[in-house]
Amino acid sequence: MSANILEIENLGVTFSTESGDVPAVRGVSLHVRPGETLALVGESGSGKSTVALAAMGLLPGNARASGRASVDGTDVIGAAEAELTGLRGRTVSMVFQEPATALDPLTRIGAQIAEVVRNHRPVSARDAASSAVELLDRVGIPDPERRASAYPFQLSGGQRQRVVIAMAIANAPGLLIADEPTTALDVTVQAEILDLLRALAADSGTGVLLVTHNMGVVADFADRVAVMLEGEVVETGPVEEVLLRPSHEYTKRLLGAVPRLAVAGAGGGAEPRLAAAAGGTVPQPADAKSRRGVPETTAVAGAPAEAPVVELHDVSVRFGRGPRAVRALQDVSLTLRAGETLGLVGESGSGKSTAARVALGLVQPASGSVSLFGTGLGRARGRKRRALLAGVGVVLQDPVASLDARMSVAECVAEPLRVHRRGMPAAERRARVAEVLERVRLPRELANRGPRELSGGQRQRVSLARALVLDPRLLVADEPTSALDVSVQQTVLDVIAELQAELGFACLFVSHDLAVVQQFAQRVVVMRAGRVEEEGATAATLTHPETDYTRRLIAAVPVPDPVLQRLRRTERQAALAAAGTEGRA
Amino acid sequence: METFLYLTRRVLQALVVILIVTVVVFCLLHALPGGPARGILGPQATAQQIAAFNHDQGLDRSLPVQYVYYLRTLLQGDLGTSYTLNEAVSQLIEQRLPKTLVLTVLSALVGLLLAIPLGMWQAVRRNKPVDYVVTTLSFVAYATPVYFLGLVLVLVFTQWLRWFPSQAPQGETLADVFAQPGALILPVVAGAASMVAVFSRYMRAATLENLQEDYVRTARAGGSRPRAILWQHVFRNSLTPVVAMLGYYVPVLFGGALVVEQLFNYPGMGLLFWSAAQSSDYPVLLGCVLVISVATVVGTLLADVVQRIIDPRVKAGRT
After folding, report:
1. What would the pLDDT profile of B209-225 be if each residue is shown by its tens digit?
2. Which portions of chain A are predicted below pLDDT 50?
3. What is the pTM of this model?
4. What is the DSSP string of A157-221?
5. Are A85 and B316 in contact (CB < 8 Å)?
6. B317 to chain A, minimum CA–CA distance in Å?
7. A193 and A290 part of one domain
8. Measured between beta carbons, which residues in chain A are less than 8 angstroms from residue B313?
9. Are residues A299 and A174 part of one domain?
10. Residue B245 — left, alpha, or beta (φ > 0 → left; ψ -120 to 50 → alpha)?
11. How many Cβ pairs within 8 Å bridge chains A and B?
12. What is the topology classification, in CATH, of domain B101-315?
């Protein structure tokens, strides 16, 4: 018997597709010891999730695996389904990325947990049900007896993930595989889930294989790290070694692209410092530095008499009617001046996207006023309203969903011209499209392709080109890089920053990523439950926040430096303990 | 309480729809060339006879007044009198409707009981021989007109094999109908065929979609056996869209009954409708249309209620 709970040797996985065989994983060898956490990191398409699924024997039907993967001494590759069924949920279990879809929507959560219990233990239905309640209590679901009969839709995302974790630990497995377990969650909830997983693993000596793209999560959680690139492991080592002194070129590049949250030094030093310096090679984009300071803000603002680009004044938005109506925004006021970038941050449901939509004229406020370029949007109708909105460009989160798959790239970019510049001759329009595509650094030959033939970063640049084709005075960017890998995120942000310097548009930048906002915006508005919690210059607000909420938000962001992160975690947990046990997900 | 309010609201909505249907039916009644008088008195009637008839029946008053009158008689259960059968339409429907209900409900039950497992089986064996064979048969069954299918059934099972009679049960009462269960088989099979074809397709699609869902992967990761996952999770989730379709299928079932009853000489609503259409017996036709409309509204209402029971999200308004 091996001492390793998971042992993978020379694993290869090939997917057979219509266009031939695609190797996804090649020659991967790794192991997880009991009680140890190994983080498998890499960008999308690197094969990290495939390795995780192979270890569970859950590869899709078109995948062929070679090599060896054994869980607690049992070979998984090529094992019969019956044997795997006996293993899954008992010896090895899994926590998935998307808690919204991971649970059966029509089955009560208690029953779903009890099902896993009964899969492996000869207990009565009643005993399984009471084990389910105990498990719900262990993962920190309040009032577990009552909650056991809730349906998944009645729970928040964090609670659903706790239920998935309860299912995973139901039979005290020796190995837990967590595939991006916190990617779909808010940072504060992420911190709680990571704390929970850490405590559970430590309690029972469970080995954890953590698949993630988030270096902060790695620093927070892992003992060792394996870095994957294009299906191969390029670097393995202890977490301090890999994150602070990476040896492989790719790891250095990956870590360099991670936006780092500058935090007040531990102990509350006055000077903000960068959270980590991977061998002192943190490449801050040249313009990022200049755009962080307050002095530049006033310089950019130019003539102070000029009307703000966007102004929301005491805006309230309600969705639905009657007692069930949701107050999405309450008395929100914000002002954005020419050339300025305003970061809008907050947890999901805080109303940040709704505020952006109000500025775009897509959501009608119940009260309050919205003005664009000094003109009230509420009273503008027809042609006047269209002309006003033509001055606003928008980039949305999902680069796949926000472009029409049936149009070519050139058509996507030309569409705003067709709508707002009807008289423009076709030749001029083509020239304008070519010019904008060049501006966002997209090769000319991509113009005739469909959006689906492009990579995520390229698609997002198409969205940007489309937003900029009318020379807008305002760019609304709603989580423009959240769906992208870090290296790609950097190039997209660089393009936006460069064009902003050149064209001088203002930018309303909505993001849940505080590090990105810190790097990108001069001013920041922190939102919470539909209200503005606090606002100010980014440099000041995000390093020395005035409200507890912002402080908690910042404390929850894991920084990609294991030493610093350990310190931050201890501080955060101490603060939480001091504040009582409130604030469970 | 919440459910009670919901039901009240839905029943009120249904009543509004039925009221609109009566308006449409009323308008159809008045769109007849020459009006009902010409229909009743025949082409030989003189202008005076028609005028006298119209006056007697209140047909010379304004349309809204007549509508109120029509609605009042309707509420009293009076749907008029058949031109040809010399019987109250309400009485005809009262006799025929239960028989048609027996036929359609049995067809629907048989159809669903076959279609749902068949669709799931196909989904599990996707792109295997079973799937292709059943898919082909489904398309054949769907493409075959009911009257042709009925003729083939009669030819095979009555003429050659002599297993079942070629006529449906002829008795007047439901007891008579159930006294000859063998005679019901061919009509029910003919009525169920297209239902099996259509709903096995729905079920196959819904099951395939659900088999791809993340919760199936979660259940597998928890060590649940494939069969248990299929029946405990996938089945219920796949059923919801199919149940929603069922309500809209009521008029199609009645349409099928029209042909089946004629073919097997089964004295239900379909045959009544058929012979009324042959002899331009408008009161009967309109009475039938009204009944079918009400049945459709009730069918969709029932489908919604069943969906509410299966899927708790519907009740919470979260879908």
Report:
1. 999 999 999 999 999 99
2. 1-2, 266-304, 583-585
3. 0.82
4. HHHHHHHHHHHHTTT--SEEEEESTTTTS-HHHHHHHHHHHHHHHHHHT-EEEEEES-HHHHHHH
5. no
6. 11
7. no
8. 105, 151, 153
9. no
10. alpha
11. 84
12. MetI-like fold (1.10.3720)
